[in-house]
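Final report, section 2: Outcomes. Of the targets proposed, Plastocyanin-like domain-containing protein is the one most frequently requested by collaborating groups, and we therefore present its record in full.
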Amino acid sequence: MSAKELLTTRRAVLAGSGVLALGGGAAAIFGAGGRAPVVAGTDTDNLVLKAGKTSAPLAGENAEVPVWGYNGSVPGPEIRIRQGQAFEAMLDNGLDEETTIHWHGVRVPNAMDGVPHLTQPPVEPRDSFRYAFTPA
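The predicted structure is given below as tokens.
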């Protein structure tokens, strides 16, 4: 393949990727699916997030793929809390792998940030970890 053909192919792939992203690529591939359940309110003292194996629909007939999720859903329950509202949740690791929860974009104490081996030790299989913080 010549350099010009390779460049053209690369451009075609990039252009196709852009169209797929603009057109809801993940929804087209994995199906639109339903929304994750919402966990709302101020009483989160007993909130348990169980990491485990589950499945998710793939676009097409009877197409399911194995995935990891929380409480049997993918991406997991939507949790809504307000800035300054105390929050607690227990992560139960039902996986055969280490895991953590990283709270993308939420300003939390470093020890609660969920970056394994950096801000906290990973949660071992069949172990649990209590996250407790008040978002700043």
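The chain is about 20% helix and 25% strand.
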